[in-house]
Amino acid sequence: MIIQLEKNIAASQKEKLQEKLQSINYEGNEVNTQFGNYIVAVGKKDFDIRSIGTMEGIKDIHKVSDPYKLVSKKWKVKDTVIDLGDDVKIGTGHFPIMAGPCSIESEEQIESTINHLVENGIKIMRGGVYKPRSSPYAFRGLGMDGLKLWYEQAKAAGLKIITEVMMVEQIEAMADYVDIFQVGARNSQNFNLLDALGEVDKPVLLKRGISGTIDELLQAAEYIFSNGNEKIMLCERGIRSYENAYRNCFDINAIAILKEKTHLPIISDPSHGIGLRQFVEPVALASIMGGADGVIMEVHQSPEKAFSDGQQTLSYKQATKTYEKIRRTYKLREEFKLI
Ligand code: PEP
Ligand code: MN
User: Fold this and answer.
1) What per-residue string of b and e applies to 7-24 under the rule 16 or more CB within 10 Å gives b?
2) Is 310 in the pocket of ligand 1 (CB under 6 A)?
3) Is the CB of 272 inside a 6 Å radius of any atom of ligand 1?
4) E strand segments, the chain
5) Contacts (Cβ under 8 Å, ≥6 apart) of 159
6) For residue 268, what are the contacts with CB-CB under 8 A and spacing of at least 6?
7) Is residue 228 within 8 Å of 30, Cβ to Cβ?
């Protein structure tokens, strides 16, 4: 159950509400975010919600039986739209493309990527400065030095930055240089990291775990929301299956289901989703028809020389064609009124 509180609810009214919840064996968890004040009440007993809905200081009350509550569409029918400023928005009615290399590699590479993105009207640049790698001997990113170089150039070009944060301890130093924190698949259920990102007023793109279920992804997002941050988007990036003809099994079903279950924007990552350059475009386009609210993809000046994930990275020439098709496919979806 989600109880939306009036902004100016008095402490005594809150106390009365908690007493009422106790009397019906419900535990009331207080959640205060950038946008609202809530009590998420968890319990088993069925009761008439009007007995709470009519109490003083209560704005609204909703029954949400899902294990995840605040990220559920059952109480918030209107989809979340995240405003990054400068007219860059993410969520229903907008269709952002985020593109850039898997890893930030050098000042020259940043400049070349920015030129490519600006030429193509792309407003959000991706890139990793802290890289989760299977091998400890692989390139693990330029860290804060790389992020600062990137920030200087991105800001001058009017681009937003999305980059992965791997540890709680990195958040504070990164926050001034980042527009969207990415939580990678390997950290999708790092609950301490999710708790900490809930306390930051910065959008978070939360990726689905390598073998994560849809419910687990939604409950992971609930950690962020319940700690105070409503600016969350979810990302389908494929899950591990028995198939080895491709890197991951990109789950379009999940996008369609997520759109029904949550009000949060859903971003598709076809690059990691299939892991093979020649199929990134068809998977991207399919994900749009499946309901995605945006696409994040890997591009590089010379994909074969990329420090990481070159095999799934598009060249600028290829990517330019793909952006165009992505935009046309989104328009077609709007025309079809698929979602
Ligand atoms: C990435 O975006 O480069 C990345 C490491 O993604 P994922 O966490 O989905 O593997
Ligand atoms: Mn990558």
Assistant:
1) eebeeeebeebeebbeee
2) no
3) yes
4) 2-5, 27-32, 37-42, 58-62, 82-83, 89-90, 97-100, 124-126, 160-164, 180-183, 204-207, 232-236, 266-268, 294-298
5) 114, 117, 118, 122, 123, 124, 125
6) 235, 236, 237, 250, 255, 283, 284, 287, 288, 290, 292, 294, 295, 296
7) no
- Report pTM: 0.98
Residue identifier of the C-alpha nearest atom 4 of ligand 1: 184
Determine the distance separating the centroid of ligand 1 and the alpha carbon of 16, expressed in angstroms.
46
User: Which amino acid belongs to residue 252?
Assistant: I
CA distance readout (Å), 109 to 101, 104, 105, 154: 9, 7, 6, 12
Q: Could you tell me if 21 and 27 are in contact, meaning their C-beta atoms sit under 8 angstroms apart?
A: yes
**Domains of the chain with bracketed CATH:** 2-62 (3.30.70), 82-335 (3.20.20.70)
Torsion, Cα 332 204 207 87, to 10 degrees, reads 20
Provide the residue-wise pLDDT of the chain in tens; the chain has 339 residues: 999 999 999 999 999 999 999 999 999 999 999 999 999 999 998 889 999 999 999 999 999 999 999 999 999 999 999 999 999 999 999 999 999 999 999 999 999 999 999 999 999 999 999 999 999 999 999 999 999 999 999 999 999 999 999 999 999 999 999 999 999 999 999 999 999 999 999 999 999 999 999 999 999 999 999 999 999 999 999 999 999 999 999 999 999 999 999 999 999 999 999 999 999 999 999 999 999 999 999 999 999 999 999 999 999 999 999 999 999 999 999 999 887
Candidates 104, 204, 272: which one to mutate for ligand 1, based on the most atoms within 8 Å of Cβ? 272
* Phi (first) and psi of residue 6, to 5 degrees: -65, 150
What's the gap in Å between 275 CA and the centre of ligand 2? 9
Q: How far is the CA of 120 from the centre of ligand 1 (A)?
A: 23
**Residue 105 backbone phi and psi in degrees, to 5:** -115, -35
3-state class (DSSP) for residue 142 = coil
Point out the ligand 1 atom lying closest to the alpha carbon of residue 126: 2
